[in-house]
Model the fold of this input.
Amino acid sequence: MKVLFFFTLIVFPFNSIFGQSIQKNRVIILTDIEADPDDTQSLVRLLLYSNQIDIEGIIATTSCWMTSSIHPESIEKVITAYGKVQPNLLKHESGFPESKALATLIKRGLPTYGMAGVGEGMDSEGSDWIIKSLEEDDDRPLWISTWGGVNTLAQALYKIDKTKSSSEAKRLISKLRVYTISDQDDSGIWIRNTFPDLFYIVSPGDDYGSATWTGINGVIRGIDNSSISNSWIASHIQQNHGPLGAEYPDVAWGVEGDTPAFLSLILNGLNNAEHPEWGGWGGRYELSKPDFTKTKKGNSIVPIAPETRAIWTNTSDNYTPYLLNEYGRSVKKDTSSFFNDKVTLWRWRDDFQNDFAARMDWGLMSFEEANHPPVPVLSHPDQLTVKSGANFTLDAFETTDPDGDSFSFLWFNYPEAGTYKKLIPVNGAENVHMVYFTAPEVTKEETAHFILKVTDRGEPQLSRYKRVIVTISPE
Done:
């Protein structure tokens, strides 16, 4: 018997149907902008999500690729371009800050490399700003999204350690969340060794080819890579997309290598930044102490040293893509599967590229002309408990699309995200609003994550998600 749940849906920004407020994430950016065009690329994208992420600082820093200069003027240039499209962005979603407010958040780190800029007398506008933001009366974590060197954060931590009581230092550091794009100076390993309780996501060392974040720009054999091609970027981002698109530079090394440091902060129904092990647009990570003997040296000047504590770092997904099927059921599984850490990120790549392209359109188009993401609505809570071996259903019948577009459902189990690691298949069709599963037989309590992906048929096609966590209890 199907039990129907009826709700009056009132849409509030970032609130769920069951009344649980989804808080926007706070973030401070550390960027070695001008060391590589990809920092500017990532900044263009970030500003298009400035209504969904509370940007609290953008700090110009050094890195191993630019050791003695910083370029806050390049940040200002992109923000100025954003200001020209901000009024039009507000036609599509509320909350986009004015460019003048964002400009006040531009801060300077020291034009000094790594640990040479950490210690007594090495405070900067940027390091002091991090401390000021931490001390604000805000219970939310403060993310440090690091696109280059991390010595500005290192100096903030150094000062906190030297000037605060141990209890206050512990309180402030407990609010920090760091995602750094590999090690781009020698202060990263110092931070991790000196502050062993600090939440830190990194692929250690400077061998970028071994890092999860490279899933954003790697050309993968056996899949369609067109959404990171230069022609796609020119058509959907750079040309005929106004002043902000015109600021998006050509790829020199790899497209948007810094973007994974904030992708999981975007509110899309899939991401949960506090749980890197659950997976999302920015990849999936496990808390572990990496094997130092397997950490490879790249070609930068960053030294390699053993990790002395557990960090959030590379882990792998076993992923079989779904393909469009011309006749009969509209989707089918690919005949090829993929297994590595980069899969955890690139499996979502077409989705977040299309989302980026749509937001670029928002800077120029009216609401009626542009596409907007669908709104998945579950007919039940997003956390359920079932008994071992029991049948259960998941349903999203009330899902809507703000543009009146047709949309498709896709349900799947994400084994790596839960404690039960074996795939739990859908009983029947996975592309309908209500699906059926059978809980596995378990001898201890297990969790399983089920993802609903809803994709509209607008241009570009946009996807949103719901994550349902099912606790399976033994008899």
Summary: Residues 42 and 259 are 5 Å apart (CA to CA).
